[in-house]
Amino acid sequence: MTNPEHTNPTNLVEHPRGAAPGKPGDRSAFGFETITRLPDAADGKGRGGARYGRTGILHTPHGDIHTPAFVPVATQAAMKAVLPETMRAEGAQCMLSNAFHLYERPGEDVLDAAGGLAKFMNWDGPTFTDSGGFQVLSLGAGFKKTLAMDVTGMKSDDVIADGKERLAFVDEDGVTFKSPLNGSLHRFSAEISMGIQHKIGADIMFAFDELTTLMNTRRYQEQSVERTYRWAQRCVAEHQRLTAERLGKPYQALYGVVQGANYEDLRRHAAEQIASLDFDGVGIGGAIEKRIIGDTCAWICDAMPESRPRHVLGIAAVDDIFACVENGGDTFDCVAPARCGRNGAIFTRDGRYNVKRAEFKTDFGPLEEGCDCYTCTHYSKAYVDHLLRAREFNGFTLATIHNEHFFIKLLDDIRESIDGGYFDEFRDATLARFYAHGSRG
Ligand SMILES: [Zn+2]
């Protein structure tokens, strides 16, 4: 007997929430619902102690995300060395992929034909794509993906890492860049990024923005914020056009990105510009010094309607996560757990350590005592150490599973602490323990 589902090609395309044949995606399938607001801080600092931190539920066509939430990064539609079903088992609620990488390989048309990013990578849940702007512009400056950067005394609009060729150039309309894969010349703009992201089909997309570094001059930052605003307007218009045109697809939410580096007036100005446009949420992006990362979130929240979810792009460290949650961040992506794990750096509640240290060669205990991740319940430090030294792929898998679990669980615990009314105590205890031995990360 023939399965009718296999004979009708239209059934190969799933129709998630808010998608109906012949109709544009239903925007009401996306939205944010606040559950618990963080009470005012007892010390009355900042805005009279008022805080933007909250728990909530982010509804998307492919499912709900309970926030605050950690967003694992599956750059090329894959978490390196770990299958999506394992990520789900470890508690991951959503994944973020990169539009630029997917544009280069396999090409956005392949994802469109597959029925979108989630279906393509067999991930049964919400997905994000970043706009590609970061990767494209990184080709220009050659800097690393860190949100908080410690640079003092360096100012230049033409900064470029030692030994790197400048591969990207910004003009009013967009960015021209050389492909790092094969050296061919490409162009990204607001419209091109929207076209690519619509075809990739993630639930949440980001507007194409210009990323600057803390080394750019104040004057350049001002010009860049205005350019990002003009690009944001074009992104909204193109997004609306594509939503109306691409029938039968689920609604894709679009977040505007607030830049402005570490200048309070520029961040506030950029936030007001982004708030004035018809975005579904906001991305807090760009280079921010660690000491003002929480304040930066709060300045942006000052301008934003409460109903708009807030994503902090490329968060770097445990203390940064607490500062951003407290000041209104709902979702956070970070490549550090996977990247560090592959190098043997293991995150635990007692800080970060390297499992490749000689003392662990015959340590048959888990990576972290008391951790209930798959790695810790089945494998030992000595084994992971051996695999990583032997460059065995399973070593990357096991270390990544533990580190991703650590961050997923950290955000789950933070969420519980806000709902339970003990966020401040939980933050103080967690940070004191994590940094007790001077740990990085
Ligand atoms: Zn573990």
What's this, in brief?
With 441 residues, this protein is of the alpha/beta class. It has 16 helices and 16 strands.
Instruction: Please give the CATH architecture of the largest domain.
Output: Alpha-Beta Barrel
Number of helical elements? 16
Q: Which compounds are bound in this model? A: zinc ion
Q: Summarize the amount of helix as a percent range.
A: 25-40%
Question: What about the largest sheet?
Answer: 8 strands, parallel
The end-to-end distance, rounded to whole angstroms, is 57 Å
Which strands sit side by side, in order, in the main sheet? 4-14-13-12-11-10-6-5
Would you tell me the overall average pLDDT? Answer: 89
Q: How does the overall form come out from the CA principal axes?
A: globular
Total count of strands = 16
The tally of structural domains comes to 2
> CATH topology of the largest domain, which one?
TIM Barrel
- Oligomer state equals single chain
CATH homology superfamily name of the largest domain: Queuine tRNA-ribosyltransferase-like
Strand content: 15-25%
* Low-pLDDT runs: 1-13, 142-154, 159-163
- Give the class-level CATH name of the largest domain: Alpha Beta
Class of secondary structure makeup: alpha/beta
Radius of gyration: 22 Å
Family: Belongs to the queuine tRNA-ribosyltransferase family.
Organism: Bifidobacterium ramosum
Catalytic activity: 7-aminomethyl-7-carbaguanine + guanosine(34) in tRNA = 7-aminomethyl-7-carbaguanosine(34) in tRNA + guanine
Region (RNA binding): 338-342
